[in-house]
Amino acid sequence: MDDHIKSLFKRYQEGTATAAERQLVETWFESHYGQKGRMLSRNEETSVFEDLDARISAMLADEPVITRKLNFRWMQVAAMFIALLGSGLFIRNKFSKKTIQPETFTEIRSLKGEKKEVTLKDGTTVFLNSGSSVFISSRFDAQKREVKLSGEAFFQVHHNASKPFIIHSGKLQTTVLGTSFDIKAYPEDEHVKVSVATGRVKVEKPDAAKLYAKALTHNQALVYDKVKDSHRLTTVNIDSISAWRTNHLNFDNASYEEIARMLSRWYNLDVTLNANHRDTKRYTLSFFNERPDKVLNVLSALTGMTYTMNGRKVIINPKNQF
């Protein structure tokens, strides 16, 4: 018995004790020396161990005592370590229970002028458009798969019926099991658009308990108006909507404000739009891998607008319509 006890404290002093063994010894310190909440200094540790060695030696001294007395001393030592073992196991069990950590999100960002493709740990692929971010929950793939989106992304979700894939984009929540779809949700835009390529997608507004679409399917889209807090369902060409992944810049019934924002994100330009314009027309145009000046020249020829470009600064002056 004494060899085991001395061996335990020797391992503790040498730093070779297991976590459970260290906990037993430190619990003993707390109960006898009031050291809870702080580490012992080297001098304090030496003093404690000298005292401990003396106590153990005294209790285990090989002195001529009657058998009943000797057994009582062994019972004292055994009782102390049984109690210590019980306290240690209680503390270990108490603190070994998995503490629920607060949920955090890791950001994956695609800067203006670039696009990014990432694969999540569940096998889902996310294509990020320019100026977009996806935020991955620290609890991702535990019981469910949950992310936040700011900007535009095309998701190819790995199928897992037991763990729904949930995307938060502003006030909307999109839930899928395994499918591919595009979500456009830039904070500065007036609309959030969810367009489906394959599979089925559910779109809702959880804070208001509103279910907008139970099962969007191929070439269907939901467009949510953030200003009016309304939505509409429409038919789309998903290949055209997601063509940005292959470097196609598409303006689909876009206003000048939308064109300016898209040019800014796509080419990483500082685009200023003349606030006094009265052109309310919308334009549908498509470009493939063109330089920004080429795009601006085409827009100028088709719409009558003028522009100035100085480095990365662009000023657009739409032609006023009367």
Task: Please give the structural blueprint.
Layout: H1 2-14, H2 19-33, H3 42-59, H4 67-96, E1 105-110, E2 116-119, E3 125-128, E4 132-137, E5 145-156, E6 165-169, E7 172-176, E8 180-185, E9 191-198, E10 201-205, E11 210-216, E12 220-225, E13 230-235, H5 238-241, E14 248-254, H6 256-267, E15 270-273, E16 283-288, H7 292-303, E17 306-310, E18 313-317
Parallel strand pairs: 5-6, 15-18
Antiparallel strand pairs: 1-4, 2-3, 3-5, 4-5, 5-8, 6-7, 7-10, 8-9, 9-12, 10-11, 12-13, 14-16, 17-18
Helix pairs in contact: 2-4
Tell me briefly what this model is.
The protein has seven helices and 18 strands. By secondary structure, it is of the alpha+beta class. The protein folds into three domains: 2-96, no CATH class; 105-242, Jelly Rolls, CATH 2.60.120; 247-317, Phage tail protein beta-alpha-beta fold (3-Layer(bab) Sandwich).
Which characteristics define this entry?
alpha+beta; Jelly Rolls; Phage tail protein beta-alpha-beta fold; 3 domains; 13-stranded mixed beta sheet; 7 helices; sigma factor antagonist activity; FecR family protein; Ferrdict_sens_TM
Give the integer mean of the pLDDT values: 82
Distance between the termini: 102 Å
Identify the CATH class of the largest domain.
Answer: Mainly Beta
CA-based gyration radius: 34 Å
Broad structural category: alpha+beta
- CATH architecture assignment of the largest domain: Sandwich
**What percentage of the residues does DSSP assign to strands (E)?**
25-35%
Written as H for each helix and E for each strand, in order along the chain, the element string is HHHHEEEEEEEEEEEEEHEHEEHEE
* Number of strand segments: 18
Major beta sheet summary? 13 strands, mixed
Dominant shape? elongated
Helix count from the secondary structure assignment: 7
Uncertain runs are 63-75
Helical content stands at: 25-40%
Q: Could you please say which CATH topology of the largest domain applies here?
A: Jelly Rolls
- What is the number of independent domains? 3
Protein name: FecR family protein
InterPro entries: FecR, FecR_C, Ferrdict_sens_TM
GO molecular function, one term: sigma factor antagonist activity
Organism: Pedobacter westerhofensis
